[in-house]
Specification:
Blueprint: H1 6-23, H2 27-31, E1 39-40, E2 46-50, H3 55-60, H4 67-78, H5 83-86, E3 87-91, H6 105-122, E4 126-129, H7 132-139, H8 145-148, E5 153-157, E6 160-164, H9 170-175, H10 177-187, H11 190-195
Parallel strand pairs: 2-3, 2-4, 4-6
Antiparallel strand pairs: 1-3, 5-6
Helix pairs in contact: 1-6
The protein binds uracil.
Length: 197
């Protein structure tokens, strides 16, 4: 079968969005305000995967619109990248856990197939995971972000071979200046990683 075109993959992404927004039922749907599907360029070579929507994302329906999102934009700009143009941003969970608690294992199990499908449809060349939850899910390893940040890994998601580049979560960087500098240094390697594949 011929490979799906970018247009067909975008159409399939819209089908997934509509399914999650209007049809899919799970416990977090009952407490969320808006679904946070993900946003950006659906044909991007670079994808970021965060943890779960927070309060502002839940209200707006868009990922990373709060303080952590502003830091993400700032770090992208420092390496010459623009979120709308160059990146697709999604989360492990598409709905906010009440009170911003950590995602539960059963919520991750329920929601992760949708993330895997997004990755399959967007076909990024590099996936940057932000923080422990996204990193452990996509690496398939229990190793935490402090150990693996900045270490490129080759993984398979839904039959697609992708390069994973685990990064600290921007919210952690906002809390701890030394983490922010590590995150900034890892960000500095992204343009080179996009070039040399
Ligand atoms: N933190 C996340 O992990 N994702 C968001 O969308 C916002 C904050």
């Amino acid at each position: 079968m011929p490979e799906a075109t970018a247009g067909e993959r975008r159409d399939d992404l819209v089908v997934l969005y509509k399914h999650l927004r209007y049809e899919h039922h799970c416990p977090l749907r009952e407490t969320r305000t808006k679904l946070v599907f993900g946003a950006g360029n659906a044909d991007a070579e670079l994808m970021f995967v965060g943890e779960a929507p927070g309060a502002q994302e839940d209200l707006s329906g868009l990922p990373f619109v709060g303080r952590a999102g502003r830091l993400l934009d700032e770090l992208l700009a420092e390496v010459g990248l623009d979120r709308e143009r160059d990146v697709f941003v999604a989360n492990v969970l598409k709905c906010r856990p009440p009170g911003n608690r950590d995602p539960l294992p059963e919520e991750i199990a329920e929601c992760s197939p949708h993330l895997f499908r997004q990755i399959e449809l967007i076909r990024p060349r590099l996936v940057c995971t932000l923080g422990n939850f996204a990193t452990k899910l996509l690496s398939g390893s229990p190793q935490g972000i402090t150990r693996v940040h900045g270490t490129v890994q080759q993984v398979s998601v839904g039959g697609l071979d992708i390069r994973l580049f685990p990064l600290f979560h921007p919210a952690a960087a906002l809390r701890t200046p030394s983490v922010k500098e590590l995150l900034r240094a890892d960000f500095g390697r992204i343009p080179g990683l996009l070039e040399d594949q």
